[in-house]
Amino acid sequence: MDETNLKQIETFLSTYENTLKNIFITAEKQHGKGILIIDINNNNKGNCDTKYIPITNRDNFWEQSEDMLQVKNKIETTLEKKIFLCLINNQTSIIIDRPYEIK
């Protein structure tokens, strides 16, 4: 994994994690369990573009690899309140989960 890309993702996450958490929670309430996809280099007038993919999505997003099927299964079976983020920077992507509390 490219260390520079990973460092940029860490910096981005430290700046925007709370905002991404709020976007995720809103999308999860509307669409059910899923993952928030964020390409940190794709922004619109300073606002990062995000895409929420519910586990019920019928396109081939979840079937693209065995790893993604495992991520889908983890999201599906997790009982705790967690956000799931896929952060992309050029050719580097990482999937993270973070616990959250509803206030």
Descriptive key words:
103 residues, globular, alpha+beta, single chain, 2 helices, four-stranded mixed sheet, 40% helix
In short:
With 103 residues, this protein is an alpha+beta fold. The protein has one domain (3-93). It has helices spanning 3-31, 66-77, and strands spanning 34-44, 47-54, 82-89, 92-99.
Q: Give the biggest sheet.
A: 4 strands, mixed
The rough form would be described as: globular
Distance between the termini: 36 Å
Count all strands and give the number.
4
Cα Rg? 13 Å
Helix content: 25-40%
Count of separate DSSP helical elements = 2
The number of domains: 1
For this structure, the quaternary state is: single chain
Average pLDDT, rounded to a whole number, is 89
User: In sequence order, what are the helices and strands, one letter per element?
Assistant: HEEHEE
Strand content: 25-35%
User: Low-confidence segments, ≥5 residues, pLDDT <50?
Assistant: none
